[in-house]
Task: structure prediction
Amino acid sequence: MALLEEPIKEVRTLKNYIDGEWVESKGEIIDVVNPATYQTIAKVPISTGEEMDAAVEAAKAAFPDWRRTTPVARARYLYRLKELLEENFEEVSRIQTQEHGKTIDESRGETRRGIENVEVACGIPTLMQGYYSEDIAHGIDEFVIPTPLGVFGIIGPFNFPFMIPLWSAPYAVATGNCVIVKPSSEVPNSQTKLTELAEEAGFPPGVWNMVHGGRSVVNSMLEHPDIVGITFVGSTPTGRDVIYKRCGETGKRVIAQCGAKNFMTIMPDCDVDRTVIAMMTSFFGNAGQRCLSAANAVIVGEDDAFYKNFVDRVIEQIKSIRVGYGLDESVQMGPVRDKEKKDRIIQYIESGIKQGAKLRLDGRENIKIVGDYPETCFLGPTVFEDVKPDMKIGSEEIFGPVMSIMRVKDLDEAIEISNDNAFGNGNSIFTSSGKSAREFQYNIDSGNVGINIGIVAPMAFFPFSGMKDSFYGVLHTQGREAVRFFTESKVVIQRWF
Amino acid sequence: MILHTASEGITFSRKLENDSAEFYENLAQQSAEDAEIWLSFARENKKNIVQVERAYYGVITDAIEGCFAFNIDPDEYSLKTAIKEGTGYADFLKQAVEIEKTIIQFYTDAAEQSRSLMADVPRVFTLVVRKRASRLEKLDSLLKR
Result:
């Protein structure tokens, strides 16, 4: 199968987008590398604190007029953005594959999920309506007006370079706020393209800004008194100990969506064919680099024959996964984002061996890469059996293509070990029993729950939830909760004499 | 090589539509009398591509198993689209019938395999099957002429 054409053809140094202008950064410039080819595809600045300050000033200055722009008019900018995203769908998707490594089907899926958030935010004239009570006392009425707050910071992760800022940005601007997006410096091209389209959609200067960078830019966001809130998606240590903590100290609103260790419970009465395929996508989609990836396969029951047959089927299917560059349409799993991440995954594999898990499939060795690409960022799928919940590979987030298989005697034990884990992001059950499914749904401590669903990704009109160490905050991104997050309730009680 | 990903499946359907469209465009040059029929087939093929791609791009998310969507052997659906010099018109018609039957088989199989995708994809495949079934009736009537 021929390779799809790469959209990024020359190495350019990316700029910040501040106050409607593309501005060169004075910060250090670092390379952005395609993980499949290991070639440099762009150069990105690590912007300075002053550049972040300039973006905040621009956003702050734009806020009063943008707030006064009617919701219907603000929605029209989003309709234009939606049309531009559809027109540029394929290019946007291929950029994701080129800079992140995911397969083209996965990138197109990410693009669609991102656009869906723009579509939902287009409904802002009704989504942000307040409510009204007449005669709360004699001749007195009371009503609530959801009002925008000002300037928000949006910090994106590396694993969904296009979609995740769209869990927040469309709702923030639709409700009348201004935003500064900080993409991951590992994958800055997708947000650059999105910002170009936002510019083309005609958002007024200062409403939608983008500043590239790293920790110093995030620190500037956290410290800036004119940033009223931050949405963040990334690791738990950063989300909990830096973002959530500092937002609390500085009085900012915060959504911190963090790490995960997702348990997939497999009941003996599951539909084996469909479950096995769902497992491929769940464990190895995006090369396991998603906070909704299953990590632990918990197989329920004491039926040795079922266990053996099921695991053999899984292994057989995994062996057929084609690993390679995601712009090859036949590829089913791409590389991980960079060599450091690969090394970290390998350390987990080594710890699994050391702690006594049975290595059934070793993704470190004999990686069969489709095409002639360096092995630098590639790993094959790895499978462990006999994993215990207290092993590192059974309890910590690996963020790579590693499946840890556990056995438990019954559903109660499956729920118990899932709930004992520190995270609670996207746990699922595969079963044909409504009773088991209901029991699981009721008792599992997980923000997103899958019933015969491997990737429990909420649609744009539902909140992207999370519990325990997977989420810090109150409201979530997407849908009505995002609208609530980006607005303050102004309550008016009125009487006319 | 077996096609597994949704992207491969859609690309293959585009190939079948384009290859058969090219056949009909060439056939139109062989027969002034029926040229409009063949050109309308070719135009319809282009519409099919748009419809199939629209369905795919509309539903391709992590809600479906996009990288494990199909199990299609393209060799089972190879088309003979070359227009050989000296071939009689009736043989061209028979060639067209074979092309349509092969493509119908592809879309039927693809619709069956994609039932686990969202409804849009199997539905558009089934619609193409229906359109092509009416083409077969048309070809049959031309053969009987």
In short: The radius of gyration of chain B is 16 Å. Chain B touches chain A at residues 1, 3-8, 11, 57-69, 116 (CB under 8 Å). The CA atoms of residues 51 and 113 of chain B lie 18 Å apart.
